[in-house]
Amino acid sequence: MGLFDILTGKRKLARPAPDRLFAMSTANITFETELGLRSAGRAGIVFQALATADFDQLVTDMVEVVKGISDDSDTEVTSQDDDYGYRWIVLRDPDFDDLVVGINAVSGAIEAGGYGDRLLCAVFAFQNSAGRPLYFIYNYKRGSFYPFVPAGGAQQRDSESELRLKAQIGAELPIEAELERWFPLWGIPI
Amino acid sequence: MPRPTSFGKDTGLQVRMTFTIFLLGLVYAALIGVIFASGYTPLLIIVAVMFLVQIFASDKLALHAMGAREVSPQEAPQLHAMVERLCVQANLPKPKIAVANTPMPNAFAIGRSPKNATVCATTGIMDLLSPAELEGVMAHELTHVQNRDVMVMTIASFFAAVASYIVQFGFFFGGGSSDDDDGPGAAVVILVSLVVYVVSFLLLQALSRYREFAADRGAAIITGRPSALASALMRISSGMERIPQRDLRASEDMAAFYIFPPHAKNSLMNLFSTHPPMEKRIAALSRLESQLQGAA
């Protein structure tokens, strides 16, 4: 925020930066071939659901759109609320590229409806070679990815693995440079 | 059909805030002129050093004074997760989170910049409000952090503090340039300082109230739920009336950074209040809600 914005308390929510989402498709190749990470076949997108008249209609239409796009593949689309009042659209599809396309379709529909500034993140679920779940989160406000590896116990994360992943994949994927922006998402429903 | 993105614009508020800052600048310029023309510059430097110390060292002191303690994500998982998601939406780094153990419902934010900030909630407010309402309150505090309100109000009050010191101690410093017939005498400087102090006090209170409106507006934009914050304000204010007077032990300086002024019931006149009256805040939030719904 510029000085004038600070003095006058102006506020604008950051618009989404969806263009770098597709870097995930190319990164997935490296995941599978070099790092032994496999997609868990699930991805989700989280946003603030506003209580306006057209928002529910928008979500219903969007689910239809995604189902239409993935008619030939078998993408499942579900919508649910999490514990904190945010809405998730969850996609399940064994083909990873279809997942990325589906997520992009959802975010595009939300943006077209005028609610683009309510998008928070897209989350892709993976498993490492030991079967341990981990996630890659795409922050729409900043257009960057970061890994999220929940460890056992309440609200614990395996920061060492996350930093290691950053070092391994940093060249392929636009990773969030500021570590303090690697926000955990607890209670991811995928 | 795409929504117009006019939700949350309040040009009137911005104009009033800019005008207040401009008036403050004028008043302070007059004071600076008088100070440099007389021999009071050392006092200016002393107060400047004091302000620097305040800016850099006051956070821990303020937390301690409020009885607040930083909490880890394990100790307050809901609060941490709530603030984290708000920070994603507001595009802010996550501040430190503290909790004050008191039944009085309130929340505040301190810190000189978003990277050095702490937001605090009392156990009273966490018990009183629903999650959506508490989210509105935390978004209000995060907006204060993002607007750098602590820094802005500290800097804005700098010359008012100088003026007040001159008024209080001017007679001891007077005569710094008693040999110099061109400069104003001590009496003139003290008189100017008195006027500056009174005028800037009122302007600062007005500025503080405008920034509260701006923080409410910011919370509405960040959460997309202005009515949740409005409902939180109503609950807090009716909760405050039930609490006996002797629990109201907040310090004067911190009053501006609370979401709800600790001595609301005893406000004599609006001119002297750091926060706008609750009805006006709720009315402003209702307007925002209409904007949001009407645009759909």
Describe this structure in words.
The complex is a heterodimer of chains A (190) and B (296). The longest helix of chain A is centred in the first third of the chain and has 17 residues, at 53-69. In chain A, 34% of the residues lie in helices and 23% in strands. Chain A is globular. Chain A is an alpha+beta fold. A six-stranded antiparallel beta sheet of chain A has the order 2-3-1-4-5-6. In chain A, strand 4 and strand 5 form a beta hairpin. In chain A, helix 3 (53-69) packs antiparallel against helix 4. Chain B is mainly alpha-helical and 296 residues long. Helices cover 62% and strands 6% of the residues of chain B. Chain B is built from ten helices and four strands, in the order ααβαβββααααααα. Chain B has helices at 11-37, 41-66, 77-90, 123-128, 131-146, 149-156, 158-173, 186-223, 226-242, 278-294, and strands at 68-70, 96-100, 107-110, 118-122. A four-stranded mixed beta sheet of chain B has the order 1-2-4-3, sandwiched between helices. In chain B, helix 1 runs antiparallel to helix 8 (186-223) and helix 8 crosses helix 10 (278-294). Chain B is globular. Chain B starts with 10 loop residues before the first helix and ends with a helix. The chains are: A alpha+beta (190), B mainly alpha (296). The A-B interface holds A 1, 6-11, 13-14, 48, 50-55, 84-86, 112-115, 117-118, 120-121, 139, 141-142, 154-155, 178, 180-181, 183-187 and B 1-5, 8, 13-14, 17-18, 21, 73-74, 77, 80-82, 84-85, 87-91, 93-94, 115, 131-132, 135, 143, 146-148, 152, 210-211, 214-215, 217-218, 221-225, 292-293, 295-296.
Strand content of chain B: 5-15%
**What general form of chain B does the structure show?**
globular
Alpha-carbon distance between the two ends of chain A: 35 Å
Counted by DSSP, the helix tally of chain B is 10
Q: Compute the number of strand runs of chain A.
A: 6
Largest sheet of chain B: 4 strands, mixed
Structural class of chain B: mainly alpha
Number of strands of chain B: 4
Largest interface: A-B, 40 and 50 residues
Strand content of chain A: 15-25%
